[in-house]
Specification:
The chain has 13 helices and seven strands. It has a seven-stranded mixed beta sheet. It is globular and about 50 Å long. The N terminus is likely disordered.
Length: 263
């Protein structure tokens, strides 16, 4: 895998470790995959920080809860999990789905096939979000739920704009959840970001979400917290104070944000 694809092991590790504690996120698949892959993946330093583990599991839980909500409101929708990595959201959501497509680069999809099986409603396909021609070939649906977790920072603002433009041309209705680095967060990442440890040196940030979507029908309808209090309370008290210092408050928002978009 290239360096960007290897970043998938950071959230995988975090979800597996937190799942073992039986808080925030129940993810036995992540536990299984990490147990089998651990000897082959040289995560170190900040990548294995327990604070980051809490953060990765919490982010996944927020996306899970949102996806469940969207499916309950739009049961006939197509779900597209862009940049799925080895994530097991397709198993963690409680709502039934008509069609779910986990999408990623070819080598990631090949790795997924060791752990997941396709069915009438679940599929795995290769996709480069920066390639608008590939987006045109995605399955048809009136409404699409787009899970866009941990991906936007690897695309330029122009690539993201083109991505949403292509989705608009493909689907009549869109529901999107997307986490982003700010411009400051992207600049700061070269010094303190765990992705550096797997070789990623260039990421991109967004300060003006409305500017990014200028000229499109897709617009931002809500900003979500990445550290909701109900999930923070699940962290053991002895760890909670430090976690809140690291991942909550105004400074964290200057680095990292979470937006819900809709067409």
């Amino acid at each position: 895998m290239n360096s960007v694809n290897k970043t998938l092991y950071i959230p995988l590790y975090g979800k597996a470790m937190v799942s073992k504690k039986k808080i925030i996120l129940q993810d036995p698949t992540a536990e299984k995959i990490w147990t089998e892959q651990e000897r082959n993946i040289a995560l170190r330093g900040k990548s294995k920080s327990k604070w980051l583990c809490y953060n990765m599991a919490m982010r996944a839980r927020i996306f899970d809860d949102w996806t469940n909500l969207m499916l309950s409101q739009n049961p006939d929708s197509l779900v597209l999990h862009i940049g799925c990595g080895l994530d097991s959201r397709c198993n963690r959501v409680s709502q039934n789905y008509r069609a779910w497509y986990d999408c990623d680069f070819p080598d990631v999809i090949e790795a997924r096939k060791n752990y997941y099986e396709e069915s009438g409603s679940y599929h795995m396909i290769t996709l480069n979000a920066a390639d608008t021609e590939q987006i045109k070939s995605l399955p048809q649906s009136e409404t699409a739920i787009i899970v866009f977790e941990g991906i936007s920072m690897y695309l330029t603002n122009d690539e993201l704009h083109n991505f949403f433009s292509a989705l608009e041309q493909k689907y009549s209705r869109l529901h999107v959840l997307m986490d982003v680095y700010t411009v400051f967060g992207a600049r700061a990442s070269k010094f303190k970001n765990p992705i550096n440890e797997v070789g990623v040196t260039k990421v991109y940030g967004i300060d003006d979400i409305d500017g990014l979507l200028a000229g499109l029908k897709t617009h931002c309808i809500k900003e979500h917290s990445l550290t909701p209090e109900n999930l923070v309370k699940e962290i053991p008290p002895r760890d909670r104070f430090i976690f809140k210092m690291l991942f909550t408050g105004k400074f964290y928002k200057k680095i990292y944000r979470l937006f819900e978009l809709e067409k």
